[in-house]
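Milestone M4 deliverable, item 7.
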Amino acid sequence: MNDRIAFENVSKFYGEVLGVNRISFSIPPGITTLVGPNGSGKTTLMNLMTGLVQPSSGQISVLGIAPGDANAFFRMVGYCTQFDSFPRGLTGYRFLFDSLMLHGIGEYDAFRLASEALQRVRLSDAAGRKIAAYSKGMRQKIRLAQAIAHHPRVLILDEPLNGLDPMARAESLALFEELGRQGMHLVISSHILDEVDRISDRVILITGGYLIAEGNIHQVRQEVRDKPMQVLVRCDKPELLASRMFSVNHCVEARLHGDGKGVFLRTADIDEFYRLLNDVAIEGLVKIEAVAPADDNANAIYNYLIGSDGSAS
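Output delivered:
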C-alpha cells in the first residue's frame, strides 16, 4: 500500500463533538474530490491526511508513512488550506523561500524551487510585491505555490479555486490535471464542483462525519440509490413521453426542457425506467433521439446531500 492514502477504521472526536467516525478508504494516484455539505467532515479528513490532527482511533498511512513521522511526512505532502493569513511584510517570493528553508531545503534549491513555483501559478511578475497588496485570487495562488513548491507526492487542496477568476480557475485546473497525470495524489475539496468534476478520477462522499460512498462519479451515483435519478430524454413528442412515463409509480417528476425538444424525468428505479423507455421506443409513438443522466456528476451528488436542487457555489 505504498502508493496509496489509506484510512483504516479512523475516527476523530473533538471532545464530545464528532469529526469523522469509522472511516475506511484507499486512494490511488490521481485526482480525488471530497464531496459533502459544510460540517460533513471534509476538513477533518484533510487535517488527518496532513497530520495536523491525530486520529482518536484507527490507522492512517500516506504512501506507507504514518503522519507522526514528521520529517519524512512533510517533505512528501503539500497542503493548501482555506486560511487567508500570512506573516506580515513578506513578498510572495520571500514567503515561498522561507517556507522552503523551514522544510530543511538549502538556500540554492529554495531559490530555484520558489521561482519555479511562482512561474507555475503565474505569479512571477508579482513575486517582489508584498502579499498584503495581493488580491484574494493572488493570495490563493501564493498558497497553492507554497503547497507545490517542494514537489510533494501528495497534494491536499481545500477549496483551491476560491477567489479565482474564470481564467485563473482554468489555469489551476490544467495544473491539477498535469500533476495527476504525473502520478501525484491530489485530494480536492471544492464547491465549484462542475469544474472539478471534469478532471476528477474519483469521489469520496461524506456527510455527518460518515463515509457514504467512494469510487468514480458514476459508481458513486449508483450507490446513492435512495435518491431519485434525473434523466434527460431528447425526443419529438416530450409532452406525450412525460405523460406516459409519469403514469408509473417510480417516475416521481417530469419537467419539459426549456427548448421544448426534451423532457427531464426523475425516477426512483432507474433499471425499470430504462425498461419502460425501451418499450415506448419500440411502440414507435415517440421518436427518442438521445437519453443521458442529467445528474450523474459531483455537483448533483452534493445537492442530493444538502437537499437542494440548486447549484453548489
